[in-house]
Amino acid sequence: MLRYLIPLAIFLTLAVFLAIGLTRDPHELKSVLINKPAPEFRLPQLKAADKTISNEDMRGKVWLLNVWASWCVACREEHPYLIKYAQSGVVPIYGLNYKDRREDALATLDELGDPYTASAVDFDGRVGIDFGVYGAPETYVIDQGGTIRFKYVGPMMPDVWKEKILPVVQELNRQGTSK
Amino acid sequence: MTRLRLVPILLICLLAPFAKAQVQEEEVPSDDPVIEQRLQNLSRELRCLQCQNQTLADSPAGLAADLRREIRVQMKAGKSDKEVVAFLTQRYGDFILYKPRVTFTTYLLWFGPFVLLLGGLYLLFTYIKQRRDSIPEKPLSADERRRAEELLASLPGKETP
Predict the structure, then answer these.
(1) Which of B10, B34, B92, B102 could cross-link to B96 by cystine, CB 3.0-4.6 Å?
(2) Does B139 sit behind a cis peptide bond, omega within 30 degrees of 0 on the bond before it?
(3) How are the residues of chain B apportioned to helix, strand and coil, as percentages rounded to the nearest 5?
(4) CATH 2.60.120.10 at A27-178, yes or no
(5) B91 min Cα distance to partner chain A (Å)
(6) Residue A94 has pLDDT above 80, yes or no
(7) Does the pLDDT of residue B19 top 70, yes or no?
């Protein structure tokens, strides 16, 4: 009896582990920057090239940093939702225009609308490296003190917004006001 | 009919140059051969995060080119290989290393195979021992002994004991 049960047990264990493995997305990497200060940057703004934007400008409030580009197809997918999220006024969304031509980026915003309070231009992707960006779109939730609290890779569709982003933002806002 | 079907394909080909593309500066190798060599060696141990089954050395992805450029800049600034690796893991995590570090979470990965090997050897030896013990010692009968001696004697070129 045992000589049949042991191989069966081994098979079942293996099957369970492999089944768990199938449900995981190998492209989703855990960011090492969670609960670390957001990398410092000072970049030209997309719509006002003579002005710069730095994470110092957002200190004291919870904000989202959304990495996007005109060439990024998945970014177009989330774009109409970004506009809705921005209109809801829950949290300001700042853009990091990643490795993009200015004219392409501006044309995209003209065409689809502009959900961003402001977009920073990361032309050569150097600030992207500091943030550990490996594929647009990516969205970071940054708290009042400038610490990264959450990162989402991929288009931020309504279910992600509702179940992952909003709870983090609301919790941070609550903590911020009670202090 | 087939010619008509080609029309949309041709149109797409004509439009392709107008498609928006990622800005990618051309990769300029360093003028210092020592740095290029160090980059070659180091980038073979680093993972490209865009196409995860390629090393940073082989990958044509934009991010890989950016990271190679960054590594060149840092090496030129006098950073050691160790410092460059630290810079990358602080941003992208240990996943960027093709050879996982020996940490508590990777013990199973590093030592698991040896544990399995030892376990297998133990099972093998106990099995052999069990089998040997289960075969009973049985002395030959007088008749069998005589036949065995006859057989041995019939072997060519052998002296009987």
Answers:
(1) B92
(2) no
(3) 65, 0, 35
(4) no
(5) 5
(6) yes
(7) no
